[in-house]
Fold BTB domain-containing protein.
Amino acid sequence: QEFVNLLHFLYHQSTLTDRTVPHILKLADQLNMENMLKQSEWHIFQSNGFDVVKKLLYADQYRLTSLKDHCLKSPDIIGKLKSSPEFDLLSDGTKAAICDIMMKQT
């Protein structure tokens, strides 16, 4: 079904949705489809269907640097990450960036 969603998006100009974008991201990453990754990044960036922590997780997992930078600039990212078990899922590089932000705030 994930691959069918990707094909629909590619050949029928289907629009990305909050429900399909995680699957599209996964396949676009596996198939090294940079354009699809960028479109998915833009969808997540402007979507209200994902909180900032989920957006950061996608950005980290799929190396979406613009989205990651945007999330790290969010004023409430530190507070939300403190209460989130998803912090442990982030890469060491992203955790270091978060620590850097915390150090600059104190």
Notes: The longest helix spans residues 92-105. The mean pLDDT is 89.
